[in-house]
Fold this sequence. Notes:
This protein is α+β, with helices and mostly antiparallel strands and about 150 residues long.
Amino acid sequence: MKLSNIISSVQVKCALLFALSLLLSACGGEKPASGDKNTPGYTATLYFDALYNKDDLNLALEYVTPRLGRIMRSYGTASQFARNLVNMQFDEVTIEVDMTNQSLREQYGDNAKVNLIFTGQFNGEKVDDMRSVRMIRKKDKWYIDRIVSDPFSR
């Protein structure tokens, strides 16, 4: 076998390996929120994803009313707000909308109560929790107005 054929064969293999690694790296990453974008549950999921998975207070502020936004800003960071006011902590979390108690009137009105189920890890321990948020619709966009306090918290 000629040296030029060996070099060509190695170049083809390197190119294939590079293309495969590029393809595999594009498949990883975060799973985007799914669902109908015009529902209160979708907005609530994006809000808590910004707080817990992205740790981004400014992103979370896009999904709240001005009143709740002022409260959130007073805590300084997403993790401080989540720990103190929401009273939940996670290292990583999956957020799902609880569809068992959803009514059509709440879904299509201008006010909604959304229940969310959180399944995640904190300090190596599995954590399951649930929270409810009150939402309002302004100009066909849903905003979180209030996080319902947990009746079983300290």
